[in-house]
């Protein structure tokens, strides 16, 4: 039994073992399965993790995008509200505009009605205007001929005043000079000058001189230039003008011609002012004339002519044409430089002055021992007729006029002084011969007179500024200078001649009065034409017709001034002179000396009238009542500026000489029929008479407007005809070197 039990146990154990084995097998299988499952799960887990990360990334991106969208949404909301606001405003505006449109429609309909009515009236006015325009067109041709006639008469009056004018200027004392004693005893307002000999007392020591005008020490540069101004216009009309500065060294020649070194506008000398005027007047004629301006500058030193603007430094001697070339050039080989503004000319003058001083031992010495001649050549073409005209301006700074004996010079200086004496006396002879209307004019006696031949005599106008140093130490120089000037002016004082000359003067005055009447008539014609033109040009002028302005303008009657000026032959014994030495005897003398026809009342009335007219003219000009051309014409006619007064003063001023043409004169080379050459008449009466004092006091000089107009940058009226070259070594040539794109380079013809 036990064995059986054991057997049974063994069997059970075996069975159990098998069961355990089976279980173990199954467990290991299960474990294997579980491991596989775990691996799978891990793999899946990893997969899910990565998916989760992707999803997280996506979620983040989505969040950002959502945020952006939210922002945009916010922005859109803001914009929407703005747009809604705008829309609201726009709707309001539209409503307003609708209202306005309704109003406008109403107004337009009213205006249309008015327009219709106005059209009707305009048609009527146009019809009337057309008729007036026809009258004006007919008159226009006449207007130009009247203008030309006026220009001719203007120059005739200038000629009557004397083509040779001598102005004396007394310079003030300089520091260091004895101011107590002066050689100048009396300066009259009409050109009288009494020189007192410091070594002789009383009447014996006094000498009376008479010139066109005497400028005292206090005369301003502007006053000195005032009488030169009308001559500048003549240059543009085809005349030759020569302006000299004469006097001993240090008497003020350079001061008058150029001005002091540091020139302010008020100190500008004749050169600056003349050139400025020249370019300004050419501008006012821009619609009728084209001007070309060329400049030459030469020096006459020891009877040799040298180009001061030459390129080469050799300074070769130049030849002079003894008969004038068609182009009017006396020194054709001197370089010609085309200029377009005052600045251009001034630059050239600076270069010339530098060249002049190059070989000098001392600038001052040399400058006063040679004659420098700056020549401004003007060629003008009348745009209407195509006619050309030529004029020239010589600005001559003469050498100092010291006498040899006094300066006690030897050697080279003596030679210079002899040449200067010779040329100055030759100049005096020429001008004297011209003023005396001699048949022979000794141009050939010096290089100076040869160079200036075409600008001395004939229709040329000569102006000499004679300079005086009032210092007693210069008495003998002053006396010889004044004698020279007296000779040049061709006027001598003397009671014996006054009867005979009185008749000449009366004849002359009659001529002047008749000429003045003619001018007045022409002026009136022009005036009427202008008024017609203004009325027809603008209906607004019609309104002005009823205004004071128009009446004042209209009231300017040259005929009236003519009538009044006609009284100038009435002489009144009034002393207008200025006594330098204040004593009674001198006062009496001055009364005797200045038997002057004064018309202060008329003078002041005229000034007032002129000022009124000037004002009115300016007003009309500014309101556009006068066209540019018309205003230029007005200025040309003398209504618009100081020249108006010059018309009268020219006529009333002392008459030095009546015409100056001689056989030796070449006159200006004028091709324009407006300025016919006058034939020389050998029977022409020699006029030698005392100067008639001006009977019409001039209004106080007006200020010239230089501030902005000076140094015009470009001048359309002045076209450069040629390419230029300048002495490069000395100065920048940028200002003066120019070439015209419009025209090929050509020589000055
Ligand atoms: N009207 C004037 N007012 C003030 N100063 C003057 C006047 N005229 C001349 N002067 C002065 O007198 C001096 C001599 O004048 P300026 O040089 O013009 O004489 P000049 O005749 O040209 O001499 P030169 O023959 O040597 O060239 C200068 O200092 C100048 O400034």
From TrEMBL:
GO terms for biological process: microtubule-based movement; microtubule-based process. Keywords: ATP-binding, Coiled coil, Microtubule, Motor protein, Nucleotide-binding. It comes from the Eukaryota. Signal peptide: none annotated. Residues 713-740 have a biased composition (Polar residues). Residues 59-114, 505-532 form a coiled coil. Residues 680-749 are annotated as: Disordered. Residues 163-491 form the Kinesin motor domain. The keyword Coiled coil applies. One of its GO terms (molecular function) is ATP binding. The keyword Nucleotide-binding applies. ATP binds at residues 247-254. GO terms for cellular component: microtubule; microtubule cytoskeleton. InterPro entries: Kinesin-like_fam, Kinesin_motor_CS, Kinesin_motor_dom, Kinesin_motor_dom_sf, P-loop_NTPase. Belongs to the TRAFAC class myosin-kinesin ATPase superfamily. Kinesin family. KIN-14 subfamily. This is Kinesin-like protein. The lineage of its organism: Eukaryota, Viridiplantae, Streptophyta, Embryophyta, Tracheophyta.
